[in-house]
């Protein structure tokens, strides 16, 4: 009879676990452990219930079940089968009733599980819908906030631009007058420098031409004198040494004259370069001062424009 009881419970528990478990794992070891718990005489019902719950917790069930309730149902089922076995006199009738009870319990348990699964799915769908709606609301609020922020920035830019143009217009006449005066000073300096350079260049060219002309003329005179001396030497008592001495003396004098003129030209060119360098340096300093002055004016205009914008913002 004990074997029949164990077999009946074994079949029932296997059928139940196959319905609840999410995989097709072999349940033989689990059923054997479970039989050892329910048939133990050394443990109380509460201890058996705790031991069954620990075994169920290790299984991969389809849904989140109440392990304690499921443990109690298994223990109750064991006692029910045990009581049925004790009343063997009405075995046939009781067996039919037990089978009906088994089917009713199994069907009720399966229906409860299916209903729970359907409820969980519906709840998940509702949560997903609410989550999507929540994110859509956040995105819409964020877009609206960015749009309002862009409008505020655009309004501020328009207002700043108006004050900037207004400030530029207030200083336009002074700026134009100052700029015109600076340009006139620059033109005067440049024109004076160009005229001085042209005049000096013309003087140097003229001096060089005169020197070349005098040098050529001097050499022509020497050649002529030498020719005359040679002719006269044929008809007079003038020695060749005296003729050569006279020619050499005149040549040395001409070289000294040429060196003196070259030194004068070099000095003039040096002074010209120094004048150009000095003028260029002064022009750079003047340009730097003008640029700093203009930058300071621009900074002052920007600062005033910002102050006006801040005042206007506070008024709003």
From TrEMBL:
Residues 106-133, 190-217 form a coiled coil. It holds the Pfam family PWI_CCDC43. It comes from the Eukaryota. The keyword Coiled coil applies. Residues 267-302 have a biased composition (Basic and acidic residues). Residues 6-83 form the CCDC43 PWI-like domain. Residues 267-316 are annotated as: Disordered. Keywords: Coiled coil. Belongs to the CCDC43 family. This is Coiled-coil domain-containing protein 43. It comes from Rotaria sordida. The lineage of its organism: Eukaryota, Metazoa, Spiralia, Gnathifera, Rotifera.
């Amino acid at each position: 009879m004990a074997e029949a009881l164990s077999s009946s419970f074994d079949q029932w528990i296997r059928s139940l676990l196959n319905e609840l478990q999410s995989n097709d794992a072999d349940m033989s070891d689990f059923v054997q452990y479970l039989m050892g718990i329910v048939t133990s005489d050394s443990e109380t019902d509460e201890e058996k219930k705790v031991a069954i719950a620990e075994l169920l917790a290790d299984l991969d069930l389809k849904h989140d079940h109440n392990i304690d309730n499921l443990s109690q149902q298994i223990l109750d089922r064991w006692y029910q089968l045990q009581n049925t076995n004790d009343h063997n006199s009405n075995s046939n009738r009781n067996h039919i009733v037990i089978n009906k009870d088994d089917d009713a319990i199994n069907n009720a348990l399966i229906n409860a599980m299916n209903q729970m699964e359907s409820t969980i799915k519906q709840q998940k769908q509702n949560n997903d819908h609410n989550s999507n709606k929540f994110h859509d609301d956040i995105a819409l609020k964020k877009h609206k906030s960015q749009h309002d922020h862009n409008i505020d920035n655009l309004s501020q830019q328009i207002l700043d631009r108006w004050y900037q143009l207004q400030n530029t217009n207030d200083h336009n006449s002074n700026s134009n007058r100052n700029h015109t005066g600076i340009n006139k000073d620059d033109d005067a300096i440049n024109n004076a420098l160009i005229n001085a350079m042209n005049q000096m260049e013309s003087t140097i060219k003229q001096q060089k031409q005169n020197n070349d002309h005098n040098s050529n003329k001097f050499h022509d005179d020497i050649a002529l004198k030498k020719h005359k001396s040679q002719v006269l030497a044929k008809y007079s008592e003038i020695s060749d040494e005296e003729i050569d001495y006279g020619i050499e003396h005149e040549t040395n004098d001409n070289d000294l004259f040429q060196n003196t003129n070259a030194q004068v030209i070099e000095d003039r060119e040096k002074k010209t370069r120094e004048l150009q360098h000095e003028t260029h340096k002064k022009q750079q300093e003047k340009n730097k001062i003008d640029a700093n002055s203009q930058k300071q004016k621009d900074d002052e205009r920007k600062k005033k424009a910002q102050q006006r914008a801040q005042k206007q913002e506070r008024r709003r």
